[in-house]
Amino acid sequence: MDFGAINPTVLAASLMVASTPILLAAIGELVVEKSGVLNLGVEGMMITGAIVGFAIAVETGSPALGFLTAMAGGAALSLIFGVLTQVLMSNQVATGLALTLFGLGFSALIGQGYVGVKPPALAKPDLGLLADIPVLGRVLFSHDLIVYLSLALVVAVWAFLRFTRAGLILRAVGENHDAAHALGYKVVRIRLAAIAFGGACAGLGGAYLSLMRVPQWTEGMTAGAGWIALAIVVFASWRAGRVLLGAYLFGGVAVLQLNLQAAGVAVPVELLSASPYLVTIIVLVIISADRGRAALNAPASLGRVFHASS
């Protein structure tokens, strides 16, 4: 075993990159669930964003256009879910699962011609002297724009839900859609907007996976990231700060286990590969062990069908 090959600075920098796809998907799903909607199709939207963004970036030579198209693709797929569940009143759990299956099949079909293709690289911003700071420069100031966008998005969502009137209305719809409707708020429109935002974030996270983190297209490359994002939102008690913690915990363990494999640790590879999922779930369960506080944070109307006539 050669633990000297593990560089803590590189490990910390890699953590931020590895966490970004799940963080984007989870923060989008947080907004969706705060509106009272449970969308289990995060995995499908992520993998759709991954192949759509990859294909557009390769065909046009523009990774920025690939990211934008991935967001549009994720939002479009999520709106199918939104129309089915909010307008046609289909079951949210069954529809979300169907969305995931559709996304996995659609991406496998479209991605056949892109296996082994290298996408164009997204230029990193030049942060000047900040990037030259010992240790911190490598860890915090050497990343691409999407990493910083994901962090800004966490702060923006937290501030939106906590301090703005629109955020208050969104939370009111999630807590009691009948009361919100009685006050004149358009419950279905608000939920559709939240669903589209969540889909766009999931699509962006998927595109980051295929364009930046890997970067290549592989069938099923999300590998359960969407399900981890869903678990993070619930176990983080629907709090943006805890979502950030959960995503970075998963990314950190994922990077660490890869480094441990490279160092030749005498632990079965299968166990190391499963460790990010196990550790993330265990830690977040411990964090949310107080069921009373967790129940207070859970949107009261989560997963319930809204009837405009009620």
Key words describing this protein structure:
Nucleoside ABC transporter membrane protein; 0% strand; ABC_transp_permease; membrane; ABC transporter involved in vitamin B12 uptake, BtuC; 310 residues; 13 helices; globular; mainly alpha
Explain what this protein looks like in three dimensions.
The protein is mainly α and 310 residues long. It has 13 helices and no strands. Helix 1 (8-34) packs antiparallel against helix 11, helix 2 packs antiparallel against helix 3 (63-87) and helix 2 (42-60) packs across helix 10 (225-235). It is globular. The mean pLDDT is 87.
Q: What is the helix/strand order?
A: HHHHHHHHHHHHH
Helix proportion: over 70%
Q: Give the count of helical stretches.
A: 13
Number of domains: 1
Chain-wise SSE layout:
Layout lengths: L7 H27 L7 H19 L2 H25 L4 H19 L25 H5 L4 H19 L1 H11 L1 H6 L4 H27 L11 H11 L4 H24 L5 H19 L3 H7 L13
Short description:
The chain is mainly alpha-helical. The chain is built from 13 helices and no strands. It has one domain: ABC transporter involved in vitamin B12 uptake, BtuC, CATH 1.10.3470.
